[in-house]
Amino acid sequence: MELIDLKAEIRQGSGKTISRALRKNDSIPAVIYGPETEPVLLSVGTYDFSEMIRKNGSTGLFLNLAVAGDTKSSRTVLLKDFQTDVFGLKYLHADFQEVDINVKISVMVPVEATGVAPGIKAGGLLQIIRRELELLCRPVDVPESVCVDVSGLDIGDAIHVKDIDLGEHIQIPHEVNFTVITLVPPTASKASAEEESEEDED
Prior knowledge:
This protein has helices at residues 16-24, 46-56, 118-121, 186-201, and strands at residues 3-10, 27-34, 37-45, 62-68, 75-84, 91-98, 105-114, 125-128, 132-137, 146-149, 158-160, 179-184. By secondary structure, it is of the alpha+beta class. It starts with a strand and ends with a helix.
């Protein structure tokens, strides 16, 4: 697990007026909370936050959050959520969850297909049905991605969630054995493209 450094400040008060004033001054309203953490209102620099997302993406980010004026020198947190405007251009709010590196948490991690499937050489199309998977594990065990080997897939084959083994320290919570990756025949991929085209015309 790599911790990304980010600075924050404690903000006084909440509400739309204060939030607008913060954004006008290139800051983003934020909050930090956790199972054993009283919510603390924060603000983070818009530029620093934007650069962090640009360089690292937004999924499964663990941070070393240094809060000016805080009783702790820094906190280990997970970027739990953030909000943007309707155009996705401006950050409006950020949620940080304080975590214990030795306690399991739920986190979303991107799926990555590895290897070359024989079915692709035969003209099939590899489809990643689930771009992210929920994992239950300690922060120190969170992988950068869930690597799924597709080198054994022929046309018509699929990999389901129960087929993925990430070791004894990482669980993938699920109620149904849903499909993660499948390899469809050329006719199916063509039909799918034609359906999308018809929907666009409608």
